[in-house]
Design a protein that fits this description.
Largest sheet of chain A: 2 strands, antiparallel
Number of helices of chain B: 3
Number of helices of chain A: 15
Strand content of chain B: under 5%
Number of strands of chain B: 0
Number of domains of chain B: 1
Oligomer: heterodimer
CATH architecture of chain A: Alpha/alpha barrel
Shape of chain B: rod-shaped
Number of strands of chain A: 8
Radius of gyration of chain A: 22 Å
Shape of chain A: globular
Largest interface: A-B, 37 and 33 residues
Number of domains of chain A: 1
Largest sheet of chain B: none
Distance between the termini of chain B: 25 Å
CATH topology of chain A: Glycosyltransferase
Distance between the termini of chain A: 75 Å
Helix content of chain A: 55-70%
Helix content of chain B: over 70%
């Protein structure tokens, strides 16, 4: 039997209205729900920062993490992820105090604990295995150890600048002196992360840490920093896009990988401490060539529009062209430069995928685990910058 | 009186949405209360299977709740409004 009303005008109108409403709903409701806490993070709300700090403390410190807790399939990456968990947690604890100095007593022991964890034998083992030398015992040697020492030195500088404590001053001075020695007269202007492997993004942390050492101690590295900035702009920033080249060969510094999102957005975070103008230029290039959105949820592509490439440990999963790493790391840049609309979009994406929960005065992203939560903590607390003077805002 | 079937959109979407909402809240509580994600990261492949199942279920329920439910609810409401408008016209 036929259904006389199936294709009636009323029925067609109902379906059309329903479909239109569902598209409008998809475009507005999920985003409004997921982005509703973004303004508090942008404005540096004390409570949300404390809650995430306590959540990260619980995830990173309350259990005895080891590289075996990470299952990337490669020992090197497992070790890097363990290192990254403590590093990002430490950066986050430090940045909270940069914005809220009254939390110094609560955050300083946590930041110090993160650094002490980073100095543990098992945490630096990933670097030691590749170099066949201990990174903390070879300050006078020729090995660069840029992957381990570069990131560590930036945290040491942030700790020293923020807390004014002298616990790690000697180590901070020694690592910086080693970097300055290796980079002075270095034709590439870059150090090796691992033997035969040179990554500009790791060197952004090396260079940023030298800049931070200069601002903390007053030691003059300006000439070297200016020379390194010029080298990065000339050789390691892609001429077409303005993005940072991901990897170069160790002999001539020629690109062996393309310019990518994950390296660019992570690198600019540290580079700010050495050359804030270059860091901002990288951010603007990222906005032009990588930033996009899907139903208003913000994302950052791993490869520029019109290009595609492989997924790897740097990019994380790539979905519809958006890289997990580049999207997460870009939160720091958006907050740093007070890019409110973009921050809101990225925050909504983190909320949707991360599924934050609160319990007992803590907050954590369910799908993040120790590393994901530590990274989001460091990105969401990234210090804001006064663009007219390039200074970190209190 | 004509009986409403369980899959009838007029009943199913509302009740389905409520079920998803309750399920999402419950799973969120369980995952946080028993620290399941941390356990997965700590124990790796040795983690009990029910923890993995709960986590996957949570992700599926969350995506459905945040993306699918608003669309379906809006669809139903719009259809109902147009229907009422036709009757009153």
């Amino acid at each position: 039997m036929k259904h006389p009303h199936r294709f009636s005008r009323k029925h067609m109108l109902q379906i059309s209205a329903g479909m239109l409403a569902s598209v409008v709903a998809l475009y507005t409701i999920p985003f409004a729900w997921c982005s509703r806490g973004a303004a508090r993070w942008l404005d540096g709300d004390r409570e949300v920062q404390i809650k995430l700090a306590r959540g990260v403390e619980r995830l990173v410190f309350d259990q005895q993490l080891s590289s075996k807790d990470f299952r990337t399939g490669f020992d090197l990456y497992d070790g890097e992820w363990l290192f990254g968990s403590y590093l990002m947690a430490g950066i986050g604890f430090t940045q909270v105090v940069m914005e809220h100095p009254d939390l110094k007593d609560e955050m300083e022991p946590l930041a110090r604990k993160a650094i002490e964890k980073l100095l543990r034998d098992d945490v630096r083992a990933f670097d030691q295995q590749l170099w066949r030398a201990d990174p903390l015992a070879s300050f006078a040697g020729d090995n660069h150890h840029a992957a381990y020492l570069g990131y560590l030195n930036l945290l040491l500088g942030l700790y020293r600048k923020t807390f004014g404590e002298a616990h790690f001053d000697d180590l901070h001075n020694q690592i910086t002196a080693k970097f300055v020695r290796h980079l002075s007269g270095n034709p590439l202007g870059l150090l090796e992360s691992y033997p035969g492997e040179v990554y500009p993004v790791d060197n952004c942390f090396v260079i940023g840490s030298i800049g931070l050492h200069q601002s903390v101690t007053g030691t003059d590295h300006q000439e070297l920093l200016a020379q390194l900035s010029v080298q990065i702009r000339d050789k390691y920033v892609d001429a077409d896009t303005g993005l940072l080249i991901q990897a170069v060969d160790p002999y001539y510094g020629r690109p062996i990988d393309v310019a990518r999102g994950s390296g660019t957005v992570l690198g600019l975070i540290a580079l700010h401490y050495a050359d804030p103008v270059l860091a901002h230029d990288l951010y603007l290039a990222m906005k032009s060539h990588l930033a996009s959105h899907l139903f208003r949820f913000g994302g950052v592509r791993e490869y520029p529009f019109g290009q595609s490439g492989r997924m790897d440990i740097d990019s994380g999963p790539i979905v519809f062209g958006f890289g997990l790493s580049s999207t997460g790391f870009a939160i720091a840049g958006a907050r740093r430069y007070d890019d409110r609309a973009f921050f809101r979009g990225l925050f909504a994406t983190a909320h949707l995928c991360g599924a934050p929960v609160g319990w007992g005065g803590r907050r954590a992203y369910i799908s993040g685990g120790p590393l994901g939560n530590a990274i989001l903590f460091a990105m969401l607390t990234s210090p804001r910058v006064n663009l007219s003077e390039w200074e970190i805002l209190p | 009186m004509r009986q409403q079937r369980w899959w009838n959109p007029k009943l199913g979407v509302i009740s389905g949405s409520l079920i998803l909402l309750v399920l999402h809240t419950g799973l969120q509580f369980v995952l946080a209360r028993y620290d399941i994600v941390s356990s997965i990261f700590s124990a790796g492949p040795h983690v009990p299977r029910w923890m993995f199942v709960l986590t996957v279920l949570f992700v599926a329920v969350r995506l459905a709740l945040l993306l699918l439910v608003p669309m379906l609810l809006a669809y139903c409401v719009a259809r109902r409004i147009v229907g009422v408008w036709f009757v009153r016209r």
